């Protein structure tokens, strides 16, 4: 009997019942969100239409709405810079936004690196490369988060931003980059050949930072209809943080996925044929 | 899935070691990454380099609001801290906009908002780094840097000097003045030599620093309103009897004894042109 990789059959059942579009609804919406945001930033430099200026670390929309990345500002703070009000207001708006929609919504709906690592995952599945953790714990990111702050403090500069592929990629696309591409390709290859979800789910301190907001954020994925679960395991296969599902799906307590590392990507909602998962507030009973 | 205490410590040690390695890497890399070449000039109002790299979050809002193709964000090949804004004077100097849009755009204060008058900016300091290469110093007429200077006549003046080579011509040499030069770099951009002989240097490179113990007596005196060392004594020249000397006035004269003879001598002397020069 030919051994098949579960990732290659994921969503087949859902496609039959929900249709091709229905079984990829949130995936398509996420790509539209990621590319749309990037496109908004590119309208200025490409077409001279300045709806959004700047990049993800700090931007100004329609000359009124300031947005700043609290992760970078925190580094700036540790580097010894007293933060200016403009940036603080921007960071506050961002914080409030992610406290509502979910901390790591940044990762799955905004971050441009997600497209790169998702692509790595896609090819990993196509090529039938076995998923391994490579011995890299998914707690490593919290150490790197600590390191990025320590680095800022030790060097008196925003040191992590020298190597942060998220800002290098996003800034690079908008403002130009040279061999920064190398780093992005390296992470793609790392995710493809070495460790499954190696960057986003194990190493990235930005994801670690936003996951801290996820501890209290409002919008969550809910395994509401968990009684209908057919144990097909497809959700575990598609989830970039598969450890988050079990307590909600198989536990006896709340069916809400409370784990701070759930990115609210909605891939489980998409591919589940019996429609076990849906979005709900964290306060939803059952 | 319970893990033993032993495993827990080993795992923690592994992670801590990895983190320490990464931290060491970042810290040493940042040392290299933050050495900025002299040709890279920060936008107006930029904090001192040390503070700038902690304050600038590399968002590029200053670049977006710069109406000229002057500012850009450093990429990996620029040898400037990646993502930070800079310009190269030789390529395009700062046009010194009156409303300073780049400073207004900065959300973090890396470009100091207290700079409201662009003429007070200190992006760097123009220096004539090669007087041998500068054709004005060789006696040719040029003055391009003087003519392009946005603070013409203040930041750059043209001074007339004697041409020692020919012995009979004048040199019209450009001179940069510390107090007014903003470091915009238009002079370096415009310099007609193959390699600019006038260059804008970052402040930390262009400026020397005197130790604090060097006090300039005349400045201290002005600050204090009186001499700080010893009371001022009127200076006395050691002159032959009957003579007096007035430095800024008449020069060496006889102590006046009012007489018609002296007046007559005075009027006689006034015909002597050398005497006249001495008096002025």
Describe the structure concisely for a colleague.
Chain A is mainly α. In chain A, 53% of the residues lie in helices and 7% in strands. In chain A, the strands form two sheets. Chain A has a three-stranded antiparallel β-sheet.
Secondary structure: helix percent of chain A? 40-55%
Provide the low-confidence segments of chain A as ranges.
Answer: none
Largest interface: A-B, 57 and 42 residues
Question: What is Rg of chain B?
Answer: 30 Å
Let me know the number of strands of chain A: 5
Instruction: Find the structural class of chain B using helix and strand composition.
Output: alpha+beta
Share of β-strand residues of chain B: 5-15%
Helix content of chain B: 25-40%
Biggest sheet descriptor of chain A? 3 strands, antiparallel
Approximately what portion of the residues of chain A adopt beta-strand conformation?
A: 5-15%
What is the helix/strand order of chain B? Answer: HEHHEEHEHEEHEHHEEHH
Distance between the termini of chain A: 41 Å
Q: What spatial form of chain B do the alpha-carbon principal axes imply?
A: elongated
Instruction: Tell me, rounded to a whole number, the average pLDDT of chain B.
Output: 84
Total number of strands of chain B = 9
Assembly type: heterodimer
Please supply descriptive tags for the structure shown above.
heterodimer, A: 286 residues, mainly alpha, 3-stranded antiparallel sheet, two-stranded antiparallel ribbon, 14 helices, 5 strands, globular, B: 280 residues, alpha+beta, 10 helices, 9 strands, 30% helix
């Amino acid at each position: 009997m030919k051994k098949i990789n579960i990732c290659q059959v994921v969503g087949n059942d859902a496609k039959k019942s929900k249709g091709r579009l229905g079984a990829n609804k949130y995936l398509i919406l996420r790509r539209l969100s990621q590319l749309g945001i990037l496109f908004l930033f590119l309208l200025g430099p490409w077409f001279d239409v300045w709806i959004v200026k700047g990049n993800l670390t700090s931007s100004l929309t329609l000359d009124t709405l300031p947005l700043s990345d609290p992760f970078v500002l925190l580094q700036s703070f540790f580097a010894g810079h007293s933060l200016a009000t403009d940036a603080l207001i921007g960071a506050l708006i961002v914080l409030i936004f992610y406290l509502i929609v979910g901390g790591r919504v940044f990762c799955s709906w905004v971050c441009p690196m997600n497209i790169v690592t998702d692509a790595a995952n896609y090819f990993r599945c196509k090529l039938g490369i076995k998923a391994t953790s490579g011995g890299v714990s998914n707690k490593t990111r919290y150490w790197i988060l600590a390191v990025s702050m320590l680095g800022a403090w030790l060097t008196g500069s925003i040191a992590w931003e020298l190597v942060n592929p998220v800002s290098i990629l996003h800034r690079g696309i908008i403002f130009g980059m040279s061999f920064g591409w190398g780093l992005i390709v390296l992470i793609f290859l790392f995710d493809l050949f070495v460790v499954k979800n190696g960057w986003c789910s194990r190493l990235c301190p930005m994801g670690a930072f936003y996951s801290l907001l996820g501890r209290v954020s409002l919008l969550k994925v809910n395994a509401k209809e968990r009684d209908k679960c057919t144990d097909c395991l497809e959700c575990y296969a598609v989830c970039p943080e598969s450890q988050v599902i079990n307590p909600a799906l198989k536990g006896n307590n709340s069916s809400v996925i409370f784990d701070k590392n759930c990115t609210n990507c909605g891939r489980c909602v998409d591919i589940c044929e019996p429609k076990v998962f849906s979005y709900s507030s964290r306060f939803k009973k059952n | 899935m319970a893990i033993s205490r032993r495993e827990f410590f080993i795992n923690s040690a592994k992670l801590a070691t990895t983190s320490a390695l990464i931290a060491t890497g970042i810290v040493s890399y940042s040392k290299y990454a933050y050495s900025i070449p002299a040709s890279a000039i920060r936008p107006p109002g930029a904090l001192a380099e040390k503070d700038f790299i902690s304050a600038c979050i590399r968002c590029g809002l200053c670049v977006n609001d710069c109406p000229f193709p002057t500012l850009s964000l450093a990429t990996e090949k620029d040898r400037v801290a990646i993502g930070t804004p800079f310009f190269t004077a030789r390529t395009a100097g700062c046009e010194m906009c009156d409303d300073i849009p780049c400073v207004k755009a900065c959300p973090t204060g890396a470009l100091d908002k207290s700079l409201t008058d662009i003429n007070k900016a200190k992006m760097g300091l123009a220096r004539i780094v090669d007087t041998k290469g500068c054709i004005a110093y060789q006696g040719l007429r040029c003055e391009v840097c003087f003519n392009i200077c946005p603070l013409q006549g203040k930041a750059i003046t043209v001074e007339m000097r004697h041409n020692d080579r020919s012995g009979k011509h004048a040199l019209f040499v450009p001179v940069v003045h510390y107090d007014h030069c903003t470091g915009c770099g238009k002079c370096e951009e415009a310099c007609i030599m193959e390699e600019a002989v006038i260059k804008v240097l970052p402040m930390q490179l262009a400026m020397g620093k005197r130790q604090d113990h060097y006090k300039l007596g005349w400045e201290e005196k002005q600050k204090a309103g009186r001499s700080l060392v010893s009371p001022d004594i009127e200076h006395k020249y050691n002159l032959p009897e009957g003579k007096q000397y007035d430095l800024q006035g008449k020069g060496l004269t006889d102590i006046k004894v009012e007489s018609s003879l002296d007046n007559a001598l005075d009027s006689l002397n006034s015909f002597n042109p050398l005497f006249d020069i001495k008096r002025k």
